[in-house]
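User: Structure please.
Assistant: Input sequence and predicted structure:
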Amino acid sequence: MTPPGGRRPGRSLVVRCAAVLTVSGPPVRNGWIEVARGRIIAVGCGRPRVPCIDLGDAVALPGLVNAHTHLEFSDLRRPLDTTGGLPEWIRRIVALRRARPTGADGAAGVARAVAAGLAESIAEGVTSVGEIATTLAPAVVDALAAGRPRVRVFRESLGLAAPTAAAIATVHRDLDRLAERGLAVGLSPHAPYSVSGSLGARLAELSAARRLPIAMHVAESRAEAELIAAGAGPFRDLLDQLGAWPAAAPRLLSAADWISLLARGPRGLVIHGTWLDGDRAAWSRLARHRARLALVICPRTTLALGGRLPPLHDLRAAGVRMAIGTDSRASNPDLSVRAECSTLVDAGLVSPEESLAMATVHGARAIGFDRVGSLTAGRRADVVFVRPAGRAADPVAAALDPSSPVVAVLRGGRLVAGSLPA
C-alpha cells in the first residue's frame, strides 16, 4: 500500500473523482471528498480550493457493510453441495465441523479462515462486518480483533433444552472477553429449529439488559415451519440423527414469536426470511417492529438453498428496513457484497440506489454502527474508491459492478487497502 504523498499528520486528505455517492442524497458528479482525523469534513463538486488527489473517472462510495456472514468457512474454495435444500446442507456443515482437528490445531484452522475472510472483505471494499461466531477460541478472537474491517461479533447460541445458569454465565463471559479485545458484540440464537423458546427468551432478556444487537436466522425453509407446527419433517429427522433432539419435547417458537423476542433488544436482525410471506403473523410483526428490526438478505445463498428471494417490493412497501449479507463461502462462491447487490438489481427487485443503501447505511444501522454508512460531514471516513469497468452512465450501477476494481479503501480515514497516488 502507498500512503497518500505529501500529507502531514493532522492535515486533511482531499480526493477528487467522477462522482461521490453520499447515499444521503443524489450522486455528486465531478465531486470531491475531504477527510481529516478519521472523519468526513466535507463533500463538494467542482475543483476544490486546496491541493487534492485526482482519481479521474473513479467513483467514491461509503464503505460497504456485510451485515451477516460466517467467516469460519472462508477457507473453502467452493460452496458445499446445496442439493436437498437447507436441512441437507446443514448436515454437510455439521460433518465439515466434525472433521476438523480438535484442540489448538482446529482453532488455528478456524482462525486462518476468519483472517482470510476479513482480508477478502476489505479488498472488496467491505469496511464493516456482522460476524456470527460459533468458535471463540483465543486464536479466533485474535484473528477477529486483528482484521482491518470493523467487526460486530454475534456470539452464537444453540440448544433445544432449557438453558442452565452455567450456560448463561458462559455467554456473559464470552461477551466480556470479546469486548475487552475492543470488538463490538452481539447475540445470536441460531434458528427456530435449533434454539428452544426458553433459551431464546433468556438471550432476548440479555440483549435488552446489555443493550446489544441480536440476530437470528428465521423462515429460511419450509421444513422449519413443519418442525414447529408438527415436530416432524426433515429437520426432525436431522436432529434425531445428530442426537440433538431432547428426550422431553422442546418448546419451539414460531417465526412470529421469534420476531417479537428479537424486537426486545435495541436492534434485531432477521436473517434470510425467505418464506416470511407465507406467515401473515410473522410478516405483520416484522412490519410493526420495523423501527428496531431489519431483514438481512443474502441473495445468492437464499437462491441456492431456497430457490427464491423474499418479496422485497412488499417488504419495502411495509416500511421494513433491509440490509445485505453474504452468508459464507459454504453457500456462496465469494464474499462480494457488490455481487449480492447486483443479484437483486438483475432480478428487478430493487434499483441500484436501493441496493446501495441496503449495503451501506441500512446495514450499518442494523448491526449498530450508526456512525458509518454514508458520506456526509461528521461521519467516520469509511470510503471506497472504485474504477468503473465499463462505460455505464449511472455511477451507482458502475460502482456496484463486481468487475469494477477497487482502487483504495479508507477505514476511519486510514488507508487499509489499495493505494492512492502522491
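The two ends are 12 Å apart (CA to CA).
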